[in-house]
Amino acid sequence: MYEPNVVGDWHEYDEYAGLRVRVHRLELAEPPRGRDDAADGLTYFCLRVTVENRGRRHLGVHLEDGQIDVRLGPDGESAFIDWRNSQFIEGFDVYPLRRATAVLYAAGAEASLSLVDVQVQLRVEEEWTGRRLWAGGIGAHEGPAGGPQGAVRDSLAHQVSVFLRDQAEEGTA
C-alpha cells in the first residue's frame, strides 16, 4: 500500500528517471472566463499539477481531462470540473530541466473544501503511469480550535502544512 502525497509534495516515477509531478497551489479562485452555469451555488477553487523533467532526455507528456479526478469532503464526492476554464498538458515534450503545468478550475460545496483529494494518472510516451493521490484542503487552518474545523486541524495534511510553513519562515529569516 502506498501513502498518499500531501498537496505540495513531489512524486517521482521510478520507471522514468528524473520525472516527477506534484499537485500544488490549491486555493479559492474564480475562473478567468466566468463561472459555468452548472456550478451555480458552488464555490470555485483552483489547483495546479506540475510535471518536471530532471532526467537526461525529453519525455512526451499528456495530462488531459479525465486524467485528473478531484474528490471533496469526508464522503469523497466528485467536484465539478470546469473543463472550459481549465488548461491541460496535451502532448507536450518536457525537455530536461523544464516543467509543464496544468491549471484546473473546479467547484464544490464550501463546507466540503476542507478535505480535497486529487488523483492524477499521467501518460508519458504513450504509456500510462500508476495513479497517485494528493490530499489537502482549503481553509483547514482557519476557524476557532473548537469549531467545526477542529477535526481537520489534527489531520496529517494540516500538520505537514504547518511544519513546512514554519520551516520556510525559519529559512527566510
Strand arrangement in the largest pleated sheet: 1-14-11-6-7
Task: Provide the structure class.
Answer: mainly beta
* Rg computed from alpha carbons, rounded to a whole number of angstroms: 17 Å
Number of strands: 14
Strand content: 35-45%
CATH topology: Immunoglobulin-like
Number of domains as seen in the coordinates: 1
CATH architectural name: Sandwich
Q: What's the topology here?
A:
Elements: E1 5-6, E2 10-12, E3 19-28, E4 43-53, E5 59-63, E6 68-72, E7 77-78, E8 80-81, E9 89-94, E10 98-108, E11 116-120, E12 123-124, E13 127-128, E14 132-136, H1 150-153, H2 156-172
Parallel strand pairs: 1-14
Antiparallel strand pairs: 2-3, 3-4, 4-10, 5-9, 5-12, 6-7, 6-11, 8-10, 11-14, 12-13
Describe the structure.
The chain has 173 residues and is mostly beta strands. It has a single domain, classed as Sandwich (Immunoglobulin-like), CATH 2.60.40. It is 12% helix and 41% strand. The strands form three sheets. Strands 1-14-11-6-7 form a five-stranded mixed sheet. Strands 2-3-4-10-8 form a five-stranded antiparallel sheet, with no helix packed on it. A hairpin with a 2-residue loop joins strand 12 and strand 13. About 8% of the residues have low confidence.
